């Protein structure tokens, strides 16, 4: 019996995993285990023998069972320790940055502008970039002979000699979306229309494709005062400077009457631009009250409705806000430029969360 005891206690001590341990249990104290079989032999013994062997066998069985249980616990403790060591995590480490690219300043500023105007109740409307000559010019009170057509350096779409469909252009501004919004929804209207526009021009501040955002509000009793308030409210929020000051300068556009260009106060101390201080003025947008002929082109009765419109260069206000000196770099797709001027891909500009951070 001592041999049996030594054999099983040694084997249990050496077991490396739970399945080995289970095999040992079956061999020793299972139904047909060695110790169980010995216990069955008790019946054939004399009462004297049985009195000695019975308690001994029972004690051995108990000893093996508790050795098995203790080893089982030790194995599972060791497994847990190993897991804790392997899965250790320092939650105080900074997050690992992921290379996801950055948001282009044009996309960022478009989102910022959209967030600000959405807060004032403006929806977003869009129109085609290949636009009918009529929507881009005629409907906006720019007839065929008008000098504005030449001034805009328009790209005309090619037409085959025998193609007599009306001419199309790459839209030179977002103003045709005014007409499309009137056609689509009638009055009242409150929309902004961001998008790409095209003019044949190329230097530090001009590229053949650039971005504008149009604004259009039409209702029963809209005045220049509403236009002024909306634009001041926009500039204060957009430039994120308290003392933003605007200057409305009388101007002329065929599609607005009266018309005003809007300048923003700035300084150019040591070659860096600061918004909201100094003695310089920078033009940022064109605006005015929608011309009655334009309302009529959009099938809206100018005797019942009136409104204001404005058009602003997105790339231009991006350059001003973020101090980007050359417009051409916007469209070079240079990754170094994007990493420098781009924005974190998961930060959505919102009025409450901050526009740019
Ligand atoms: N469409 C004009 C431009 O491109 C801007 C503008 C829009 C002016 C709306 C007045 C009203 O210069």
Strand content: 15-25%
What overall geometry do the principal axes of the alpha carbons give? rod-shaped
Ligand species: phenylalanine
Biggest β-sheet, characterized?
8 strands, mixed
Structural class: alpha+beta
Termini gap: 80 Å
CATH class of the largest domain: Alpha Beta
Strand segment tally = 10
CATH superfamily membership of the largest domain:
Bira Bifunctional Protein, Domain 2
Reading the helices and strands in chain order gives HHHHHEEHHEHEEHEEEEHEHH
Instruction: Give helix % range.
Output: 40-55%
Please give a handful of descriptors for the protein shown.
single chain; 357 residues; alpha+beta; BirA Bifunctional Protein, domain 2; 2 domains; 8-stranded mixed beta sheet; two-stranded antiparallel sheet; 10 strands; binds phenylalanine
3D structure, described in words:
The strands form two sheets. Strands 1, 4, 5, 6, 7, 8, 9 and 10 form an eight-stranded mixed beta sheet that branches. Strands 2-3 form a two-stranded antiparallel ribbon. The mean pLDDT is 91. The longest helix has 40 residues, at 47-86. It has 357 residues and is an alpha+beta fold. The protein has helices at residues 2-14, 18-29, 34-41, 47-86, 105-119, 133-136, 147-151, 176-185, 224-239, 292-297, 314-322, 335-341, and strands spanning 123-124, 130-132, 168-170, 189-198, 209-219, 246-253, 256-267, 274-275, 280-290, 306-313. The chain folds into two domains: 2-86; 102-344, Bira Bifunctional Protein, Domain 2 (BirA Bifunctional Protein, domain 2, 2-Layer Sandwich). The radius of gyration is 41 Å and the shape is rod-shaped. The two termini are 80 Å apart. Helix 1 runs parallel beside helix 4 and helix 5 packs across helix 11. Phenylalanine binds at residues 173, 175, 214, 253, 256, 286-288, 309-311.
